[in-house]
Design brief:
Layout lengths: L4 E6 L9 H8 L4 H9 L3 E4 L2 E2 L11 E6 L17 E4 L3 E6 L16 H12 L6 E2 L8 E7 L2 H12 L4 E9 L6 E5 L2 E3 L7 E3 L8 E9 L3 E8 L6 H8 L22 E9 L6 E5 L4 H10 L1
Parallel strand pairs: 8-15
Antiparallel strand pairs: 1-4, 2-3, 2-4, 5-6, 6-8, 7-8, 9-14, 9-15, 10-13, 11-12, 13-14, 15-16
Length: 301
């Protein structure tokens, strides 16, 4: 991949007579901070291949090109060689199938073996001049699809899309018992547990709104396979909600699940969908259940 990240637009009649600044901020989602960075950190803008300023006026048919400055690599993310399971990639997005047991981002206890470390190494090999921007993180012991923005600008667009619930993910989970009703909604506010820095709990006084939708797709003697979608994205939301209604995830001993069938929470992000911000078409991706969940299901039969 060639170094340098840039984006171009052909100006239509509706955007004619706008300044470059207004077009980028109002039509393309540029923040003031990003425009300042382009000016101060080595980026540039061109109209029809001639360098321009944000105050220039656009005409119908003009081609506006923004050349972004190379991003400074984060000092907290060491590049670590690893075999990434790449499900999808284009010049703006990277979607990976994260294995269970791997954190998304470095922490005090794991600085070199996270998904972000592997992405940093991959970018080095591809000469891709950006730092790591993970849009949809997963808990370390949750497997499945993770969406990554391949530059700062796309990250800001996807983050805004995520706030508007525009990124849809579907999870599969094995929970204790047979859930009744077999399809439904859990709406219960979640907050951090006062006695723990890790655990969350349903708290009707201090909790933030949390809504989970589920549907049973298979039942076993004392377990259910559920398909789950989130309206909100609270930390540990799926784990907390199903523990709250008496059906903790198998393997999730933090929230009351037993580990005889699987040693980690049986939770997998199996589907992701979002609108490509430039092509204006929807990207829909799936990945298969991992081996440990398949083995768990077999043991439950």
């Amino acid at each position: 991949m060639a170094a340098g990240i840039q984006k171009s637009w052909i100006i239509d009649q509706e955007s004619s007579q706008q300044t470059v600044k207004d077009f980028l901020q109002q039509k393309q989602g540029f923040s003031r901070r990003l425009l300042t960075s382009i000016k101060q950190d080595g980026g540039s803008m061109m109209i029809n291949n001639d360098f321009c300023y944000v105050s220039n006026i656009l005409e119908t048919g003009d081609q506006l090109t923004v050349i972004f400055p190379d991003e400074v690599q984060s000092s907290s993310i060491t590049a670590t060689e690893m075999n990434l399971d790449i499900v999808y990639e284009d010049e703006d997005h990277l979607v990976l199938n994260k294995p269970a047991g791997q954190a998304s981002m470095p922490s005090m206890t794991d600085r070199v073996d996270t998904l972000a470390n592997g992405i940093a190494w991959y970018y080095q090999q591809e000469n891709h001049p950006a730092t790591v921007h993970i849009v949809t993180r997963l808990d370390a012991n949750t497997s499945g699809l993770v969406l990554v923005a391949k530059n700062r600008y796309v990250h800001s667009l996807l983050a805004e899309n995520q706030k508007r619930n525009g990124i849809h993910r579907m999870y599969e989970a094995l929970v204790t018992g047979v859930v009744e009703p077999e399809e439904g909604t859990i709406s219960a506010p979640i907050s951090r547990k006062t006695t723990s820095i890790i655990e969350r709990e349903v708290n009707w006084t201090t909790g933030k709104r949390a809504v989970t939708y589920y549907k049973t797709i298979a039942t076993f003697s004392n377990a259910s396979l559920l398909r789950i979608q989130l309206e909100t994205g609270r930390t540990h939301q799926i784990r907390v909600h199903f523990s709250h209604i008496g059906h903790p995830l198998l393997g999730d001993d933090l929230y009351g699940g037993e580990k005889s069938f699987i040693p980690r929470q049986a939770l997998h992000c199996a589907y992701i969908e979002w609108e490509h911000p430039f092509l204006k078409r929807r990207i829909k991706l799936t990945c298969e259940r991992p081996e440990d969940i398949m083995a768990c299901m077999k043991a439950l039969c």
